[in-house]
């Protein structure tokens, strides 16, 4: 069957529009945070995996950092346990930590690896323990950090929640250079070998920083960062973001996301993007079309 002229023209237009982007980004590193909320639907998961394989095929180096908050929640529910979230962070006792490690390092990590490999890619799954990739320490928060109105410097205990203290990229570099796609679960290791549950956005941001990635793409379940009327915001700076947080427009899971995007661009990542993982091929649309999608956060440039 032959293509009709209109469809052929459209395909040719799409491919030629992509060419300058492929040329620009070829050889560059792209860190993609794949949020648990964006991995709920089978066809979306397949479209994500195809995008990642295509990126690698045109010479871009995707590094995937995944979440899995809803998937952790499901298993906790099955064992009759509920989580409390403070500023988008799950308060993590020892039993919850065991579940987090099982779900993120096992079920979620391996299903993403499997999906990418089924689409012809070569993915390798890691947690922050593999190759001593992510060293972590306990995240210390005070009442004031959580809500300035509380005006208390009393510590709030989030349990085994960690923050990244350092990243050793050796294992990622080795995988990238051997044409593998690293798929990383956000679990860190402490100096005594203990495990830490780290918000996946924060891990993705730090990995983008140390790799000096061209882009950090955060895939989530909203069209991007929205204002109080539900309109898409873009081209934001740190001052505007602080105002939006004070006004309560940015809350919950969006707090670590926007925080790590700002930190990443301040540390040399060229651009960060918060995009809608519920849209088929969202990553390709962001990478290879003139319009792009979602919220763009730009750094000062290198
Ligand atoms: N200003 C905002 N714009 C868009 N979403 C926001 C905003 N403030 C808070 N959110 C919330 O942040 C959520 C995304 O964070 P999260 O649930 O942690 O997603 P993910 O699993 O992708 O990391 C959105 O679904 C929304 O409920
Ligand atoms: C400390 C903390 O909150 N860790 C997260 C780790 C997973 C994650 O970040 O998943 P999403 O990206 O899907 O939200 C959690 O326990 O849910």
From TrEMBL:
SUPFAM superfamilies: Carbamate kinase-like. One of its GO terms (cellular component) is cytoplasm. It catalyses: N-acetyl-L-glutamate + ATP = N-acetyl-L-glutamyl 5-phosphate + ADP. The record marks 33, 257 as: Transition state stabilizer. Keywords: Amino-acid biosynthesis, Arginine biosynthesis, ATP-binding, Cytoplasm, Kinase, Nucleotide-binding, Transferase. InterPro entries: AceGlu_kinase-like_sf (IPR036393), AcgluKinase_fam (IPR004662), ArgB (IPR037528), Asp/Glu/Uridylate_kinase (IPR001048), Glu/AcGlu_kinase (IPR001057), NAGK-C (IPR041727). GO terms for biological process: L-arginine biosynthetic process via ornithine. One of its GO terms (molecular function) is ATP binding. It is an enzyme of class 2 (transferase). Residues 28-276 form the Aspartate/glutamate/uridylate kinase domain. It is found in: Cytoplasm. Substrate binds at residues 68-69, 90, 197. The keyword Protein biosynthesis does not apply. Its EC number is 2.7.2.8. NCBIfam families: argB. Catalyzes the ATP-dependent phosphorylation of N-acetyl-L-glutamate. This is Acetylglutamate kinase. It comes from Methylophaga lonarensis MPL. The gene is argB.
């Amino acid at each position: 069957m032959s293509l009709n002229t209109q469809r052929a023209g459209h395909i040719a237009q799409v491919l030629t529009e992509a060419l300058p982007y492929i040329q620009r980004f070829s050889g560059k590193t792209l860190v993609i945070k794949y949020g648990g909320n964006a991995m709920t639907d089978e066809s979306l998961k397949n479209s994500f995996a195809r995008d990642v394989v295509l990126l690698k095929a045109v010479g871009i180096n995707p590094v995937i950092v995944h979440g899995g908050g809803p998937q952790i929640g499901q298993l906790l529910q099955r064992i009759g346990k509920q989580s409390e979230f403070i500023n988008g962070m799950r308060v993590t006792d020892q039993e919850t930590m065991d579940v987090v490690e099982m779900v993120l390092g096992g079920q979620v990590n391996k299903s993403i690896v499997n999906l990418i490999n089924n689409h012809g890619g070569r993915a390798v799954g890691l947690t922050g323990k593999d190759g001593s990739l992510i060293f972590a320490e306990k995240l210390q928060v005070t009442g004031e950090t959580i809500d300035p109105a509380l005006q208390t410097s009393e510590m709030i205990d989030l349990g085994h929640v960690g923050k990244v203290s350092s990243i050793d990229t050796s294992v990622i570099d080795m995988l990238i250079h051997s044409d593998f796609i690293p798929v990383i679960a956000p679990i860190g290791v402490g100096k005594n070998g203990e495990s830490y549950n780290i918000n996946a956005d924060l891990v993705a941001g730090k990995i983008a920083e140390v790799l000096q990635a061209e882009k950090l793409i955060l895939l989530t379940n909203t069209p991007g960062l929205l204002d109080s009327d539900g309109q898409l915001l873009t081209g934001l700076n740190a001052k505007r973001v602080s105002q939006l947080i004070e006004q309560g427009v940015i809350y919950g899971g969006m707090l670590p996301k926007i925080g790590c995007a700002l930190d990443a661009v301040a540390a040399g990542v060229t651009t960060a993007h918060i995009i809608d993982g519920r849209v088929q091929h969202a990553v390709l649309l962001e990478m290879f079309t003139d319009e792009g999608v979602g919220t763009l956060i730009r750094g000062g440039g290198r």
